Amino acid sequence: MNYRHGFHAGNFADVLKHVILIRILGHLGLKPAPFRVIDTHAGSGLYDLAGEEAERTGEWRGGVGKMAAPFSPAAEAVLAPWREALAHLCPDARSYPGSPLFIRHGLRAQDRASFNEPHPLAEAALRKALPARDSRLAITALDGYTIWKAQVPPNERRGLVLVDPPFESRDEFERLARGVAQMARKWVGGGLAVWYPIKDRAAVDAFEAAAQASGFANVLVAELHIDRFDATGPLSACGMLLANPPYTLADDLATLLPELAGRLALGATARYRLDWLARK
Q1: Are the C-beta atoms of residues 141 and 174 closer than 8 Å to each other?
Q2: Phi and psi for 96 in degrees, rounded to 5?
Q3: Which of 156, 155, 157, 173 is nearest to 165 (CA)?
Q4: DSSP per residue over 210-233, as a string?
Q5: Radius of gyration of the chain (CA)
C-alpha cells in the first residue's frame, strides 16, 4: 500500500498514534535530564482537513471527528494530554497536526528533536510548519532508515525513535525488523514507537516475531481495529509496536482502547489488542 498521509490525516490511526506519542513525551519530561526525539518519516507537519486530499477520503470524520464527545472519566484522563496539545496546535479544528508538531509541543527548553522527511514537497511543507528559529529542531531529507541508523544512540541517551513509514515498498516490514534489531544492539535502553498498517497479517506476525527476538527487554503491541479485516479494502486496522514504553502506558491503554474501539467503530467487529511480546 501507499500511505500518503494527506489523505488519512486525523483518521483513527492518527488518533491512536498521537495519543500514545504525547503520553510517551509526557513521561520523558518527568525527569529533568534532556531527551531527544528522532522522527524518521516526519511528513508535512500540518494537514488541512478541508483540503483536497483530506476531503477526498473524509477519513478524519471517522477519527478526530468522532472524538469531541467525552469518554468516561478514566479514559478522559488518558486522553487529556492529547486534547490539550490538539487545542493548542489547531484551535480552530480545521486542520490536524502531524507528529512533528505534537513532538515540538512536548519538548522542553533542554530537549531536542530531529525530523526526517525525504519527499521534497512534504519536506518543504514541514519546514513551513515548524519555526525556522527554533534551535531545538533539526530537519533532514534522507532515507528514514539511514537516519535511524546514523542518529542512534543520541547524545542525550534518553528519548524516543518514532518510525511511521509510508509503506510504499513490499519489503517495508523486513526493513522495520532490521531496524528494530539494529537499534536493540546500539541502544537497548532507548524508546521506540513503530506505527504500521494491518493489511497483511502474516507480515505483521513475522515483524512481531523479529521484534520479540530483537533483544529489547520490554516490547508492547497495541492494535486498533475499527471494522472487519479486509486485505484489499480501505485501511481498517493499525498497530503500534513499543519498545521500552513508559511503565504506566499499558495500563493507560487498557483503560482507553475498549472505549476508543467502540467510539471509532465502523462495524460490529471493531476491537483492540494489547499484548506484551517481551516483558522483564
Answers
A1: no
A2: -135, 135
A3: 173
A4: HHHTSS-S-EEEEEEESS---SSS
A5: 17
Decide if 164 is catalytic. yes
Choice among 14, 164, 227, 252 that is catalytic: 164
pLDDT digits (tens, 9 = 90+) for 115-167: 999 999 999 999 999 998 999 999 999 999 999 999 999 999 999 999 999 89
Expressed as residue numbers, the domain containing 200 is 5-278
Q: In 3D, which of 277, 123, 143 has the Cα closest to residue 214?
A: 277
Residue entry with cell 500540518: 46
Contact between 16 and 225 (Cβ < 8 Å): no
CATH number of domain containing 74: 3.40.50.150
| Residue from 14, 96, 106, 87 nearest 55 by CA | 96
The amino acid that residue 174 corresponds to is E
State the Cα–Cα distance between residues 227 and 159, nearest whole angstrom. 34
Q: Kindly indicate the confidence band of residue 2, based on its pLDDT and cuts at 50, 70 and 90.
A: very low
CA distance 273 to 261: 10
Cell of 274: 494489547
Q: Identify the residue whose cell numbers are 487529556.
A: 80
Query: Which of 166, 276, 226, 208 has its CA nearest to residue 12?
Result: 226
**225 near 261, Cβ under 8 Å?**
yes
Tally the domains of the chain: 1
Confidence grade of residue 1 (pLDDT, cut at 50, 70, 90):
very low
